[in-house]
Write a structure and sequence with these properties.
It is a single chain. By secondary structure, the protein is α+β, with helices and mostly antiparallel strands. It has one domain: RelE-like (YaeB-like fold, 2-Layer Sandwich), CATH 3.30.2310.20. It contains two helices and five strands; from the N terminus they run E-H-H-E-E-E-E. A hairpin with a 2-residue loop joins strand 4 and strand 5. The longest helix has 14 residues. It is globular.
Length: 78
């Protein structure tokens, strides 16, 4: 069994999240919760040349996040 990751939202990502329609907010929150269990799910892509940065695309939503030790920091939601 894997240890859960602590997920944090950067202030800019939190602000962006609030601007999405409620239905998309729920989808984003579910995705973020899933990252706490597996921050490298199938389909996520490591951003080349950027240490520890990954991108996850779901339903025309892009999350850019950084994995460090047991933490995941969501940097951007677009």
């Amino acid at each position: 069994m894997t240890t859960p990751y602590h997920v944090m939202l950067a202030p800019a990502a939190y602000t962006q999240l609030k601007h999405f329609p409620h239905k998309q907010q729920k989808l984003i929150v579910r995705l973020i919760e899933a990252l706490s269990v597996n921050p490298r799910p199938e389909g996520s892509k490591k951003i080349e040349g950027m240490t520890g940065l990954y991108v996850e695309n779901v339903d025309q939503i892009r999350l850019i996040y950084k994995i460090e030790d047991q933490e995941v920091l969501v940097l951007l939601i677009k």
